[in-house]
Batch of 2 targets.
Target 1
Amino acid sequence: MRPLAANMAAPASTNPVDFAARDFDYLVIGGGTAGIAVATRLSEDPNIVVGILEAGPAALGEDDINAPKPVLQTLGTKYDWQFETVPQPGLSGRTLAWPRGKVLGGTSALNLMTWNRGNREDYDAWENLGNKGWGWNDLLPFFKKSEKFHVPDEEAQTAHRLYFDPQAVGTDGPIHASYAKQYSKTHQLCYETMINLGVPENRAHHAGSNVGIWTNLNSVNPDDNTRSYASSAYYVPNSSRKNLFILTEALVQEVILIQCNGEWTATGARFTHGSNSYTASALREVVISAGSVQSPQLLELSGVGNPQVLKDAGIEVKISNLNVGENLQDHLLSLSIFEVDPSLQKADLEPPGTPYCYLPISAVTSKQKFEQLASKVRALDQHPPEKSRILQGRFDPFANLGQFEYIFDLANWSSDFRSAAENGKKYLSILQILQYPFSRGSIHIRKRPENASSDINRSTIADKPVIDPGYYSGPHGEIDRDIMAECIQFSNRISRSTPLSEVVRSRVFPPSSIESDDELRDWASKNTTTDWHPIGTCGMGGRGGIDSGVVDDRLRVYGVKRLRVIDASIMPLQISAHLQATVYAIAEKGAYLIREDNLDRRS
């Protein structure tokens, strides 16, 4: 670990006694992607005091986090909560690892650094559910506020197709967004192949539609080639503020809810640091920013959730809400791997310049197969009905939305296919990622042991929650598996098209012997994994209110005063994009809503 740079100060508070003694105006639970952004924005007002409780260490000078190469180095380490799913029947009984950041900066310190946005229609769908102010036009200013886009030089723009809409990008936000500095021959080959297949080139993929082929952006500071993430971008430049305090390695046990005038009200949080327990107070609001896994877990541990789930875990029921921990949606990922000409060279820098492609299913399958899938979608019964209409609308043959994503990389991405480097062969991986899943799951706290009767045996934050995404399960999940099979078939078509076909020797994963739809569906069940993009477990309820969600469109928890959730869990429907840029936009908007509501109360 390298020493902290001059501008990378240690957290402002490392003493739990001092932290607990302060009267915070706002207490943020979770110093991750959203939590740090929210707290930093709130602390811009010098008249308020903001505290952050983070379960992991600061790790501000950790090379494995700051250096983009090699990517995903910190998964499975002390900086990872190391969650996993329960066995998934739709995945042939397999369990999947679910990495989540247990470090200041959260998952933004661990991720692949992809920086993109969903389609205008993705966010408009949230607003159409009755969540006022969450459409594309309302969110765009917050996307831009979080972002510092680096304009590539004109020579690089022409050589590598580094296109952008200058009206859609932010120029002075905290998170650096940049194109890679190096591009391999594979980038050009894959890009040209998709164009030859009739895929449109998208020259404004940041501006409300990501459909088509384009070159990816990364959350990397090009000045020193380091990861740009919540800690380095939001916290470090503002760490000298006298009103912003962070306590790391503090494990929050519950939000303190008391009854005031007959209403449940959040007043603070109980947490442990080392072997000792403490209480932190919040005079104005408590903000939960613990992510799609632990935000619902904390609500349930605090007495907010499905009464049966709470009773089974030994938790007193304070607010009944059947939606806490439900509505879980995740992007599903499968791999196609091809042996390629060994003369191909990968760029030295990571993350590399890579073609990304989002396409509607209607663009890659026959009309007959598309209609078969669409008829299954139309037959589904979703709750609430508004969600059914949105999901069905995405299967309109004229819908121009990225129902799945392709990423191309000159590497072997599979841990199950290992016959590679030792024999000198080289491989191209095509990642196939389903964007609008029909599979639905849940995350809940665990039941206490049989015959347990005392509070000692109640579920705690130390008990990892039960994560059941429901991949490929039920009639909804079967549609996802059908779509994935079509995605794999199209990857075969890509590999057989020029100019990529000139360097592809054979498909090795799935084995070339697997060809029929039934075989590919079976293969998908046995080999699909997660893209680690969970959302929805504390979703906005819209017009349905507490019957349809956990928070309102100002991110306030139904039935509890002075408590909000601000992170990916509030998204009611999945988007066609990697999540981090949207999570920052949610955090920016959430902080704005808090400050706006506070001003309203003063007037």
Target 2
Amino acid sequence: MSTINTATTNAAITAAQSSANTAVQEAAQSLISGSTGNSSMDVNSLVTALVNAKTAGQSAVLSAEQTNDTTQITAYGTLSAALSALQVGVASLSNGSLQSTYTATSSGTGLTASAGTGAVAGSYDINVQQLATAQALSSTAFSSTAQLGTGTLTVSVGGNSAQISINSTNNTLSGIAAAINSASNNPGVTATIVTGSDGAHLVLRSSATGAANTISVGVSATTDNGLSKLAVTSTAGTSASTIASTGSLAWTQTTGADATDAQSITSGEFTSGAQLGTGSLTVSLGSTSMSLSIDSSNNTLQGIADAINGSSSNPGLTASVQTNTDGTQSLVLTSNTAGAANTISVGVNATADNGLSSLGVTSTAATNTSTISSTGGWSQTTAAQDAVFTVDGTTVTSSTNSSTSAIAGVTLSMSATGDQTLTVATDTSTQATTITNFVSLYNSLVSTFGTLTTGTLSSGSSGSAGPLMGSSVVNSMQNALASIVGSGVKTGTGTVTLAAIGITLNADGTLSTNSTTLNNALQNSPSTVAALFNTTNGIGTQLNNDIEGYTQTNGTIANATTALNSSLQSITDQQTQLTAYIAQLTSQYNAQFTALNTLMATMNSNTQYLTALFGGANSAGALATAKSG
């Protein structure tokens, strides 16, 4: 128990005992009065006063200790809350995220971005060429009241599908739309009815954007009055290039042209050193091409590779000769640039052909836009397509209009096409706010320590003594945390302190911030800030680890609270025992003083009788009168 709580307990005992003694003195008057024949004594008051006098001290001790324990538990809860608030405040100072605070600003509209962990300050050219869209299909026109027959519709979006049973209760266009929308396993499509001058149209929209999220409707009609016209097949856009050989030897695509990869294709196998004939080759990369004249001086695979690599009009690809395990050779063509549009094709015009025509190959670039086929008159009002954009010339696709992978640590959100610049920079303003918030929370904790312990406020003025005054546990916490913020962080070359970024320790234990020095350090000395708040032994990490030890389930505060709760339980047990003792003592005293009261009443009655019979000081009495007569 702390010093202040011991004094409070002693004062309570003294007051209770004094009050009990006064009550005994007052109750004793009834005993005196009863013994002198004035009246019967007040047994209840006398018993109550005597019992209270005997138990008041112990009752006061238990009550005071109960109050003290409860107050200390509340105080530890207040301290735990202040510690936890500081722990939350230093989270970004201990996990390294402070150094990963960036702003991401675009030069125009239609592109927003946010930057976080993993981002790198810099400038990026972003060209949004195509936004991701969700497919929408519109059926041929029907009469709004026409019953289209019965059967089953299989509605698919991407790889998911649902079967819709069509019968006489729902085989109108509006009934079919309602059945699709209410299907428990709806694959992600909404159905509406749009009525035009030509009639009612069933319109289906995918809930998700992206080239892969295409809609198809399969129809199995048992009775057909137009139901079969609802059949439609959508073909998703492809994300990588494909090739087709035009010569007798097949080319293979070893790497497809897509958002992140450059295309690489390998020809069929030729005899090593064979002369393939004469003519010309047209080698294309995307929409750019070059023409090569092939004659006896360069008509081997190596000669052709050298001619491609040495051409001044090379569109951006590299040629090499690969020797296979069986000794044959193949021509390998590789684009120098990734991107779905950067595909390679080779056209051959042979005047003398000894295998030259076998080098012919056509590449089809990836497409991110869906197509449909329908015999019932469906039209695609909006294609399912991916977003397509470039980052510093590299093509990227996304099924949505956002991307978290194109630039490390940066989330892009696109709402319009266009070319603009994205600038990622360190967010020193947010960093300063985070650090000053830490200072504020630390100062709040210092104030809480003051209120709960010595009663001296952080400003230096005195207040009432706190409920945890004298607690060695709390004093140890306060000293440990003060040591962390005052000592700084050891580095390989010395020690870096908070003063280096404008934060100083005051005499009363609080911290003060010089905003000018702090902002200067954030802008011009980020390495100092990084050292102070590193994830290994930085100030934030040290504070977080210490606070965790205090506030965790089996931590210092939990153990202290458990001990106080055990003390409260013991007090409750003792109060129960005291209550039983008071009841026993009350019963005993009641019996004793009731008997005494009865005895004194009998004695008084006898005294009155004898006085009347024999006479008192001023009366001869009835017996004396009789004798005289």
